[in-house]
Amino acid sequence: MAERPEDLNLPNAVITRIIKEALPDGVNISKEARSAISRAASVFVLYATSCANNFAMKGKRKTLNASDVLSAMEEMEFQRFVTPLKEALEAYRREQKGKKEASEQKKKDKDKKTDSEDQDKSRDEDNDEDEERLEEEEQNEEEELDN
Amino acid sequence: MAAAAAAAAAAGSGTPREEEGPGGEAAAPQPQAPTSAPGARLSRLPLARVKALVKADPDVTLAGQEAIFILARAAELFVETIAKDAYCCAQQGKRKTLQRRDLDNAIEAVDEFAFLEGEFPISRQSFPPVFFMLLT
Questions:
Q1: B135 vs B118, B124, B132, CA distance in Å?
Q2: Bias category Low complexity: which stretches (chain B) (predicted)?
């Protein structure tokens, strides 16, 4: 794999912050080491994706789900990640549920007003739209052939 | 959308996702299990970038949001883990700055990191200069 497009890297600032918080105060990290960790993290995601995809295919599913990723972690010998990931997943699900209820409530309120306001909503609820689009993509792409 | 989130993260100032208190996790280092305090930040890595990585795999058809989220969180845990392991090597050298070679050593030493071997081009920094002198 000789080509690695730059935009597949994770943001440096976030990587640096994660590293600094993992290490004791006063410890620094060289630019080369940080960039190597960043690339390693990208490789990790690619490898985990591939492992998770195997589990999805075994289950005859086209869509990767959370349990595929958790199974991949065990396969990759990162069992120690499984528990914290499960906790994070539960928290994420709670947050998503809360968001969805809030946005549905907003929709109901706005429907009572004018229809033109729905177009402006996209600026405030970018994340929700992203998620809804993901779900719609899944429904649409299941009918099409994969690219 | 995602660009705005990434820009905010890059700016590093007042990112809306920051929920943990100052020094909350640094005060209680746990080398084995990564801390995940309740109510802590869910994910710092932008999901859009992680999704781009997932889509880069030609065998992957689709990935659900939860899968993307868990991958992002796992990548964070991975970064914490590898940074700590590399730091052990730096500590032995009594240095306070993590170098590239600490990372290479950690990758060689830890079995779970075996998938990283051969992914990185060998850089000059990995070898002491005397090694190249011996070659000539």
A1: 21, 13, 5
A2: 1-15, 25-40
